[in-house]
Amino acid sequence: MSETNRLLQAFNHTTHQVGGHGKRNLQVLKDALADLDGSLPSDMYGTGKVMEDFQTKMANFLGKEASVFFPSGTMAQQIALRIWCDQQGLKRVAYHPLSHLEIHEEDGLKELHQIEPVLLGDENRVIHLQDVLNMQEEIACLLLELPQREIGGQLPDYQELEAISAHCREKGIKLHLDGARLFEILPYYQKTAEELCSLFDSVYVSFYKGIGGIAGAILAGDEAFAQQSKIWKRRHGGDLISLYPYIISADLYFDQRLPKMEQYFTEARELASFYNQCQAVATRPLEPVSNMFHVHMQVPRAQLEPILVSIYEETGIGLTPYLRESDDHSCTFEVSIGDRYATIPRAELAHVFHLLDERIRAIRPLSR
Amino acid sequence: MSETNRLLQAFNHTTHQVGGHGKRNLQVLKDALADLDGSLPSDMYGTGKVMEDFQTKMANFLGKEASVFFPSGTMAQQIALRIWCDQQGLKRVAYHPLSHLEIHEEDGLKELHQIEPVLLGDENRVIHLQDVLNMQEEIACLLLELPQREIGGQLPDYQELEAISAHCREKGIKLHLDGARLFEILPYYQKTAEELCSLFDSVYVSFYKGIGGIAGAILAGDEAFAQQSKIWKRRHGGDLISLYPYIISADLYFDQRLPKMEQYFTEARELASFYNQCQAVATRPLEPVSNMFHVHMQVPRAQLEPILVSIYEETGIGLTPYLRESDDHSCTFEVSIGDRYATIPRAELAHVFHLLDERIRAIRPLSR
After folding, report:
1. Do A237 and B75 count as a contact with CB atoms less than 8 A apart?
2. How far apart are CA A43 and CA A41, in angstroms?
3. Do the chains contact at B238 and A237, CB–CB below 8 Å?
4. Which of A265, A333, B20, B326 has the maximal Cβ count within 10 Å?
């Protein structure tokens, strides 16, 4: 068995796992349906009470005229950008070089919509006002991902967001929020979703990240935007006869977990500080601004994996199921805090990090 | 209340409803999950046992190298046509003028893929070999929908299908099967799915029509085709983190209802003959070739609706929840036979048609 498989296997055998809400298994759906009566009618091709009620609820929460449920954010966001491009008569948008659209969607935006992206700013930081001001190209829409997931979930200052929004409005550039983790950043900004979304013309939110649903997304904006997005949803093949398995679970877990976002945020900062106390380990960002962060360890994978496996086996606590080698002598992985974290005895967790620090110190001389 | 709403309301209050499997409600999903353990892991972005097992099962059933689960047929079929067009270097396909792609998808094929369709044959009949032979345009792919839903579910002779397939192979034209109701036509053709699909390069089947699942589709073909379709699925936003609610229900209801397709077919022919014995009523086709047909009644809607409402109320049996006015003096509606039909006492059903015939005869002199 490879070390990687050993790490995953050891992780799967732990009693406590530090990230997430729990296993992604059928129980998540069963729990969502348990209290509902079987007579609840399905939605039908975008209509029906179960869908319309949730769309109204989310439109209100986000402070937008209307919202539309989508099977995925990939679909919702391409469509948002397409609508704004068509409206502006300009097939160019701007987003971060590590945007989901650029690195995880097989170039759907280019292949299906012939929209050209301008990669704005630097891979290693968030987009700043100055990047927008310096942009040479004319664009129809600017997409901001808050938090910027691929760099550990970082955020610009709220004042900078306001300035970017004001600039876009002045220039007639539409501003779209990739809010895959929008709920998760509200505690840091100390803003309501409505306040934050008021800076944007359109907003996408996801229900299987911090919310922990099965799948699904909401796209919100003004009424005309929402209507057009339904036509494009049909074109993309996303206007299913029934989306209720996703809607029901999104709705239930939204109610359950939205009030816990502050807790996840606090716990993420606590966990990050545990990591940052270890030799050769740093989180990114150093102080999380949401429930997520990345961990960077200046230890070669071949040495780090046995350490982690030994700690998982001794303590029954699993830190990460995987390691990504960033170069020959360091590794990185992502952490997102959910319901599980609160169930782990703090003293035991402190002991895990004591062991981690000790064992990294023991091998570090060998690695240089 | 409008007559239309009265008809729907009267239908909803009947004890027996003639078409379909039952109400599309949450119970359909609850039943599909009931016997499964909550520990069953979710699929993950197109991978995982629950998805891969079902894909293998369907590839075997359809006699293709590989199959890929999709959230919708709209997505699956656009992608099939796109793959064949790209492979042939020609963005033109042919299909029936009433193809789902032409009338129900908001022109997704044209808007997202810039594929130009040739509308082959006549609105009022299926595509024949002669239509294919007469076609002036070069095409990358021919799509055949079996049965042709919008004309009551009609089929070409099997020998004609074989001839079309042979012609396409000779000319290097890819042949794609819109098999939204493929399972439903096997009893008529007296062929296995594998035999029928061997005439085609790619095949789409649906799981919420005769099978009665929640939603979802399979696209099958050779290994390279399947691999490409996964890339396009990601681009379309259909590569969800979890599709298991659809897969599980598709799998369960496939096992339950595939063996009943012969029964539905027989029942459809019985029901059609009941209709055809009534004054001014004819089914299309006269003898169904699947579980479905259309009913055409040469009676004005304003006169037909009160008749139907009175029969529903007196007998507790509902024939159709809606009527579509085809012109000033006739109406039409669609019937698909499912599990419900077998539960209706035959003598009571015969009585319904006795009443229908009697009451149409009574008003027919007034309508001319």
Report:
1. yes
2. 7
3. yes
4. A265
